[in-house]
Amino acid sequence: GGVLLKEAIISILCVCLLLSFCACGEKRPEGADKEFFYALSSEPQTLDPQVASDAASLTVITALFEGLVRLDENGDPYPGVAASWSANRDSTVFIFSLREDACWSDISSDDPAEPVTAEDFVFAFRRAVNPDTKSPNASQFFCIKNAQQIYSGAMPVDALGVSASDTHTLTVELEYSLPDFPTLTASAAFMPCKERFFNETNGRYGLERKYVLGNGPFAFSGYYAWEHNDHLSLTRSAVYHGETEVLPASLYFYVGEDAVDLSDPINALSSGTVQLLTIPAAAAAQAESAGMVLTRMNT
Question: Which end of the chain is more exposed for a tag (fewer CB within 10 A), N or C?
Answer without folding.
Answer: C
